[in-house]
Design goal:
The protein is an alpha+beta fold. It is built from 4 helices and 7 strands. Strands 2, 3, 4 and 5 form a 4-stranded antiparallel sheet that branches. β3 and β4 form a beta hairpin. The longest helix has about 35 residues.
């Protein structure tokens, strides 16, 4: 049976958390650079308060414009924990990698799941693997390996557990 503890430690949940931290990191670094630029410019011009006020407005607009990306990632993370009782855990082999069109450099797998009634279905995982430098889940570590996935046949949803 699938529990919140298992989902929290899953590959997919880890990937979602990294996406959230990535977007927050981009925002924080950008705002920090804007703030630094505003302080240097304000000190050079002698009008620090006005520069920080105008810079603050730009930083607020910048943060608001990136907030939908953060909220979307948080929403996708929270949705992993919905209807856990409807999921069954299966063991599959990651042996058919395919390159993602949306996430450059990422790879997804088409896995074959043998359901309890004996039927087999083919499902695509999310593009969670990559061999780029910052990748947490390396393609070379998971290729042709057995992993566990959770599949909800009613909703036709899958969670990669690992």
């Amino acid at each position: 049976m699938l529990t919140k503890k298992i989902v929290k430690k899953s590959i997919e949940a880890e990937w979602r958390k990294r996406q959230i931290f990535l977007w927050i990191g981009i925002i924080a670094i950008s705002v920090g650079l804007m703030l630094l630029f505003g302080i240097v410019t304000g000190m050079k011009d002698g009008n620090l308060a006005l520069t920080l006020e105008i810079g603050g407005i730009f930083m607020l607009i910048y943060c608001i414009s990136f907030m939908p990306f953060v909220l979307f990632c948080v929403y996708k993370y929270v949705m992993l924990f919905k209807d856990l009782n409807n999921y069954q855990i299966y063991e599959v082999v990651l042996n058919t990698p395919r390159t993602s069109r949306w996430y450059r450099g990422a790879v997804y797998y088409t896995v074959t799941i043998k359901l309890e009634d004996g039927t087999r279905i083919a499902k695509d995982t999310k593009p969670l693997w990559s061999d780029i430098f910052f990748s947490k889940f390396r393609l070379s570590d998971y290729n042709n390996q057995k992993i566990h996935i959770a599949y909800n046949a009613e909703a036709d949803k899958m969670i990669v557990i690992g």
